[in-house]
Structures are given as C-alpha cells and as structure tokens.
Amino acid sequence: MDVQLRILRFDPDRDAAPHWEEYVVPAEPSDRVLDLLHQVKWYQDGTLTFRRSCAHGVCGSDAMLINGRNRLACEYLVKDAGQRITVEPVRGSPVVKDLLIDLDGFWEKYRSVMPYLVNDEVPADGKERRQSQEERDRFEDTSKCILCGACTTACPSFWANPDYVGPAAIVNAHRFIFDSRDHATEERLEIMADADGVWRCRTIFNCVEACPRGINITRAIMEVTRQIESRRP
Amino acid sequence: MSLAPRDQGRRPRPRTHDLDAVVVGAGGAGLYAALELKRDLGPEARIGVISKLYPSRSHTGAAQGGVCAALGNTEEDNWEWHWFDTVKGGDYLVDQDAAEVMCRDAVETVINLEHLGLPFNRTPEGLIDQRRFGGHTRNFGEGPVRRACFAADRTGHEILQTLFQQCIKHDVAFYDEYQVLDLAMPQGTGGPVSGVIALQLSTGEIHAFRAKAVLFATGGFGKIFKVTSNAHTLTGDGVAITYRRGLPLEDMEFYQFHPTGMYRLGFLLSEAMRGEGGFLVNGKGERFMERYAPTMKDLASRDVVSRSIYQEIAAGRGIDGKDFVHLDVRHLGAKVLNEKLPDMSGFIRTYFGLDPLTELVPIQPTAHYAMGGIPTDVDGRVLADETGAKVPGFYAAGECACVSVHGANRLGTNSLLDILVFGRRAGIAMADEVRRAAEPEPDPGAEASVSDAIDELLGRSDGERPAVIRQELQETMFAKCSVYRSAARLGEAWDEVDALRVRARQLVVQDKGRRYNTDLGEALELGFLLDCAEATVASAVARTESRGAHAREDHPDRDDVNWLKHTFAFRWSDGAPPRLAYRPATITRFQPKPRTY
C-alpha cells in the first residue's frame, strides 16, 4: 500500500519559514515510521534531515511529533499510524533543520542535576556494595530513561517556561535520589527545589504519555517533591 | 578518498583543538578509557571524546543480557573456567594470553562498575545477581554456570549510562556529532598518530584534533549485511580509516551471526531468553538443538546454534518451510518475562504484535558482531604488522579492535566484558604515553585531503545515490558471505563488491548544504562499509578451513596444522585484493581439541 507522509520541513539556510511537504511512499503495515522517512531520504529527497541510530527504541535519537504526539519514529508502526501520517519536530526547542532540533539546552539541564553516583567509599573487602533487590527496585523505573527528550518537549510547562528543568532531568535526578548507595541526596533535592525545578510541574501527564520507555514520570516527579517537602520544618 | 596532499591555499584552515588525548567513539570502551585518562592524569588533563552521535546513543546501550565475570555469587565459579570457555568458544584461535587477562580482570572490572553506580540486579544477600549464558560452563565444560551479571535485559544501557555519568562527573570534554574521517599521521604508516580530522555535522566545518594519544573505539560494521542487529550508524568508520592508512585488519573473515534475530528486522532477542530457559523449535515442533549440542543444547555457542538453524531451514524444517524458526519462551511465565526480560517482551509485542506468554516468536540468525578488526595488544596499542610492531600514539578498543580474545567466535557477554576491560586498560596505557610523548605534529596533507573529498562529493551533480549501492552491498554480503560460505559464492561476492567500489566513485549527494548534511555523512559511511566488506571477503576467500563463525562448505573441517593463525589484511591498491599476512595464535594453556557442546 501507499502511505501519504506530510513532513514539516525547514532549513534556515534556504527557507524563510517552516513549510509542509508531502511524499507518497510504499509501505507494509509492519513498517516503522522511521522506515518511511528513510524511503524519502534514500530514494526521493536526500535533503530530508533527522537523527536516528538503533532503529528499535533503545538509543533515543528519533523522538518526533508524529500524528500529534511525541514518539520514537522507530517504535511507531504504519498499522497503528494509518495511511496519512504527519511528522514534525518536537516542540519547545529551536529547529536546526527539518526534524532535527537543537539539544544543547536539553543536555545542559541533564547535567545540572548531578546525574552521577556520588559515593567514593568502597567496601573494605574490595567487593561490591551490598544493595537489596528492593532497594534497587526503588529506582528501576527511572533508570530506564534513554534521554530521548520526548517527555520534556511534550510538557506545556516547559513550552511556557524554557528555563524549567523539565521531566527528563527530574527523572535522572530521581534515579540517584532514590539509590540507597548515593551520598548527594541533599544537594540534588536543593537543585530540584529551585524556582525552575519540580514546582513547575502541573501534573498534566503529557510526559507519561510521551515516554517510549513507559516510565511513570509524573509519579517520579511527585516522589521527588514529597522528599523535598518531608525535609521542611 | 584520495590521500594525496593538495594545495590548500584556496580554503580556510580547519579549526584546531589541542588536547592531551582524543577518544573517538562514546560507547563503553571509549567512555571507560576517557574516565581512566581523567582519573590517571588529573582534572587538568585535556581529554576529548568525539562521537558522531551523542554518547547516550552509542550502540553499547543496545546490549541486553549481561557481562560475564566469575564472581561466584550464586554458585561456584572460577575465572580459569571462564578463560577455558572463551578459548573453546573462539575455536582455539583466541590469543590465550589476552583471554587470560580479560577473564582475570573481569572480576575487578565488574566490581568497579558497581562502585561507579551500575544498578545490577541483586541476589537475596544483596550481591550482584548472575545468570546462565551460551557457552559458559563450570569445570571446563561440564554444564552451564551462572556467570552473567545483569541489569534486567538492558545491561548495556546501564553500562553506557553509568560510564557517561561518570565522565560528566570527571569533566571529560565531549565533542558530540562530529564524524571522524581520517587520522593525523604526518610521517606516514609507521606513525606516530598525532590526532584526527573530523567533520562537525552541525556546521559542515572541518576540525583538526591534535593529541599525544588517539583511541579508536568506533564499534562495528554490521551494516555491510542486510539483516543485522547493528544500528544504522555502525559503518566501520574507524576500521576503514585504519585500513586506508596502510595498517592491517585482523581476522576480518570471522563475523558472528547471532541465532535469535527478530525475523526480517534483524535486531536481537537476547540470548538471556534462552539463558532463562527458552528454547528453539523447528517447523515440526522439534527442539532441534538437542540433536546438534546434546550437553549445552540451546546454550551452545552462537556459531553452532546459527549453523543448526541454517541446517534445519535447508532441510525444509523451517516454519512452514520458510527461512525462520521459532523461539519458545511461553513456559517462562509472566514473572520472568516481565521482571528479567521486560525489554525483550516489549520488542515482541511492539514489532510483531505477538504475546510471548502465549505465542511463538519468529527468529532468524542476524549479523551481529565482528570478531576481527584493528589488531592490538592487551593495552590497546595498535599493531603495525604481523610481527607485532606498534604504531606510536595509536590505540583501539572495543568491537573495532581485535586483541584477539574472541578468536573465531565470541561468547555471549564477552563483548561487554571486552569493551570494559580493554577500554580501561587502553586508557591507562594512553595516560602513560601522554606523560612521555612529544607535542603532536599536525598533518596538513590529511586535513586537505578530507576537505577535497568532501568538496568533490558536494560538487558532483550526476551519479548514483549511496542508498542504492549500499543496499546491493548488504544483499550481496548477506547472501554470499554469511553463515555458510564457499569458494564459488565468495568469488561472486568479491566481484560484486569490487564492482560496487567502482560505482561508488561516482556517488551523488543531493543535499549540497553544510548544515547537518546527513546525506553527505551517509555517502562517506558507504565508503567505509565498502572497505570493511572488501577486507572481509578477501580474508574469507583465503581461509580454506572451517573454524568458529567461518564455515566453508568446501572445507568443512578445522585445519590446525595450517590455519591456527590470524589473518592480517593490508590495503594493496585500489581494485586489487588486499595483501594477506599471518600471525600465529598464542597458545599457552589449552591445547586445541575437537569442539562439541
């Protein structure tokens, strides 16, 4: 069958403004939207620009706004997307070219939450630190994050205030705040309690809907918020 | 790409970056090396990691089942058993001194990862949990052993995240979305290597990175094959650049086909699905691995299982007589599938629309892993030739390298172990060289030839599209240079690859801009793929025996008298087969024996 693909194109070096272009590509119901984008790029228009790598939902390169919702293009199949598919860059970040956005701000926010284990003590016997499976499961959900940015760029609070640290960064703060081995909980909670931290969340749940890893992001944000509140006199 | 220096008066000089050490590739090997460099040389050291992606997109993150170390946390284990399994798994082509280093270092390395924050699954005692994996045995082959340390079925993801996190903590400088296109080697093939030349994707500018030590950790080249578990970006860039510089590629004929690729899609369903108790069935509903490997059955090594699947299919016992078989995990139950194999279950639901709890999963062998690559010693130092001479300033680690710890066939979980152990060791060795080395010398000739090659591609208005040639290459390699090989089919593959090389001299790039020109990037990657394919086919033609992943129908037996040696392929001249030389495999402890599972 043929699928009609509408793609929002924009090359600042050539175009005055973003514009829609339409392509018709042959497809099987089991094809991924990423396969269709490749059909266009490889055989119709080599200038179409997007990021991708693993093509099966683990590298996080190809988050896009497809049929009105943030998804990974490699995880969304034609049988679910239908025969008329619209593809746009995710919102709230500057478009560099076509579906490819500027991620500098995204990484800056990720880095701002101390996204690494802080603990230089190791057991005297030189072996692994002990941690129970229950303690480990406490941050299982947030450790799944692949940093694709689908959540943050789906968040209306982020659209309204680009300084909001955003759900992806909070998820990665949660991953360490709830790790029994970590020693920097207080510092991280302080960062989270900043004016542009967790308080900006309006529990709209767009992030949860957008997350390709099925992380319950709003719950993670609430858990971080409760930790901050539990420390107030 | 022409390597001849040209007049460079016409264009601006490339932007230069003066660093102590440069790491190319931000997967597990590269990040671990960068971390060790920082830990060793201190916070002032200028350590740069260059990636054509962002670090968290590297393909290490796709690794699933586990990383092996003889911790003995759930049952008795011994690193020497692991050593034996690695040597036997590699069909005795493994350099045993190198495998000894890997299996012994494994224990400390995995513990160190835990200290860095990796969230391993835990035993009831709170230790790192372990599970079974193909080819890993107790007491020198008696039966399966629990040796794979894991974080659910996304061990690679957690390794990548943990090392990226620690590199951020240690203030490693990242150069994201730069595509490395050449080495700086101002004095030619003998070295030293004094940096790399890269294309900044966002601007199209050429950058020269100067450094006292350079590590290639650029990953594999699975994209030479049609059905592969590899990411689109695994195009053998570092391997091909090394080859173009007149340096050898080792054991390129040994390419692993993983038995359980998702049918037609190619990406993996982890061996952990069989480690947890899943098994393969043919079109008649038979558990056929019992016939091919009576002791280890579905957990025999990957080359054995992939050949068994091909034989079942050839005998008409594929599903409905077609070219796939089934993986049965229904009996594992919801708890194991959801808690220990959640991502695998998700792949099956998303891409096949099947429920692994109640339905059988179609699988076929998929091109997965290059045992061969850039030859190195156990500290990542690149070898200049088959005598073992080194190239000063040049290191390689991870899938792009060949130490050789995998020999003719790699065991499951040993790739994650390889990137960790040898990435780390390379970082330590590089730190030592950085302390002693002279200031790096620029290579204006290489800078100019990279610019020329790009200008030429962008300037051509007529020619073939890269995707057309790439697709033909992938089909040729998958049909004629995969699980079973013969002189006749390899000969055809050589001719076809050669013809594609000629056609690829007239590639046309439609995107003529400088900003994020991924059309240009793919054209450059196609050149790398063709080089990797050339070396693979030529090395496979010459090896007239069957060993590990290299199975020749016309030479079905292993030939230890003539072939217990590594292939070294050197670029000869454009259009001519590479020159092949050989280096004996190092045998220290385990004498070659017939290999059964």
Structural summary, described in words:
The complex is a heterodimer of chains A (233) and B (597). With 233 residues, chain A is an alpha+beta fold. Chain A folds into 2 domains: 2-101, Ubiquitin-like (UB roll); 104-230, Fumarate Reductase Iron-sulfur Protein, Chain B, domain 2 (Orthogonal Bundle). Chain A is built from 10 helices and 7 strands. In chain A, helix 3 (104-112) runs parallel beside helix 7 and helix 7 (166-177) runs antiparallel to helix 8. The longest helix of chain A has 14 residues, at 217-230. Chain B has 597 residues and is α/β, with parallel strands linked by helices. Among the domains of chain B are: 15-71 and 152-254 and 369-402 and 411-443, FAD/NAD(P)-binding domain; 255-368, Succinate dehydrogenase/fumarate reductase flavoprotein, catalytic domain (Flavocytochrome C3, Chain A, domain 1, Alpha-Beta Complex), CATH 3.90.700.10. In chain B, 35% of the residues lie in helices and 19% in strands. Chain B contains 16 helices and 24 strands. Chain B has helices at 28-41, 79-89, 96-116, 155-169, 237-244, 272-275, 289-292, 302-314, 333-339, 342-352, 414-436, 444-459, 466-480, 487-503, 518-542, 560-563, and strands at 15-18, 21-24, 47-51, 67-68, 130-138, 143-149, 173-176, 178-184, 195-200, 206-210, 213-216, 249-250, 255-262, 279-281, 325-328, 361-370, 374-375, 381-383, 390-396, 401-402, 484-485, 551-552, 565-570, 579-584. Chain B has a 6-stranded mixed beta sheet, covered by helices on one side. In chain B, strands 1-10-9-8 form a 4-stranded mixed beta sheet. In chain B, helix 5 packs across helix 15 (518-542) and helix 14 (487-503) runs antiparallel to helix 15. The relative contact order of chain B is 0.17. Mean pLDDT of chain B is 96; it is low at 1-9. The chains are: A alpha+beta (233), B alpha/beta (597). Chains A and B meet through helix 1 of A and helix 3, helix 4 and helix 10 of B.
